[in-house]
Amino acid sequence: MRIIRAKDYDAMSAAAARLIAAQILLKPDCVLGLATGSSPVGAYQNLIAWNKTGALDFSAVRSVNLDEYAGLTPDHDQSYAYFMRHNLFNHVNIDLKNTNVPSGISGDGECQRYDKLIADLGGIDLQLLGLGVNGHIGFNEPDDHFSLGTHKVTLTESTRQANKRFFPSLDEVPTHAYTMGVRDILQARRVVMVASGTSKAQAIKDAFFGPVTPQVPASILQYHPDFVLVADEEALSLI
């Protein structure tokens, strides 16, 4: 594990974006595993800026997203498919046919389809992650075992509370989601996690300076051979 300490969110975002850009430059047709939420938005903004100057070319990049809310269509303004178009895809020269987000409306057969898709792409070259306040990655919530492939999960109350700011009320926050499994994430050749703010400090301490346990899903990344944590000073304040 390697830790990159950044002063603040902007510095964290720039550092993470440099790692992603380096992957694209080294392998223009790479497979990027992408994340949603507020943590990666700054990194995406840096990538957009570099693409607009011609320094970075997304034309051959393929992407697979971590997760999607169950029951939301791709055009719903709180779906992760919509998020990715709004925050990255519509602003760079990526071919939308090469972008993939789990379907929230296809039913449980979506899990097998998505795992096959990842395998057919040759696996993920770089997986970008955020970190939940309870240590979740993707929507892999604390459990008594580590998940394997893509699966449907019941979202915990803490996760729904964390996401309610995006919805008119907590009642409208979906109760389930489809997510890549821990196995899918671990099989990525490189994993980059971004974390910012004091709200993530305890999760970082538990995940990377405590035991490996499915009660803290991110802790499994201690075993990944090429894992980089990019975090700001507040997020790293307890270590």
Describe the structure.
The chain has a seven-stranded parallel β-sheet, covered by helices on one side. The protein has a three-stranded antiparallel β-sheet with strand order 4-8-7. The protein starts with a strand and ends in a 7-residue tail after the last strand. The mean pLDDT is 95. The protein is built from seven helices and ten strands. The chain is α/β, with parallel strands linked by helices and 239 residues long. Helices cover 29% and strands 18% of the residues. The chain has a single domain (2-195, 215-232), classed as Rossmann fold (3-Layer(aba) Sandwich).
Give structural attributes.
239 residues; alpha/beta; three-stranded antiparallel β-sheet; 7 helices
In short:
The chain has 239 residues and is α/β, with parallel strands linked by helices. The chain contains seven helices and ten strands. Helix 1 (9-26) crosses helix 2.
- General form: globular
What are the low-pLDDT stretches, counting only 5+ consecutive residues below 50? none
CATH topology call? Rossmann fold
Oligomerization category of the chains in this entry:
single chain
CATH class call: Alpha Beta
Largest beta-sheet characterization: 7 strands, parallel
Calculate the mean pLDDT score and round it.
95
- Number of helices, counting only DSSP H or I runs of 4 residues or more: 7
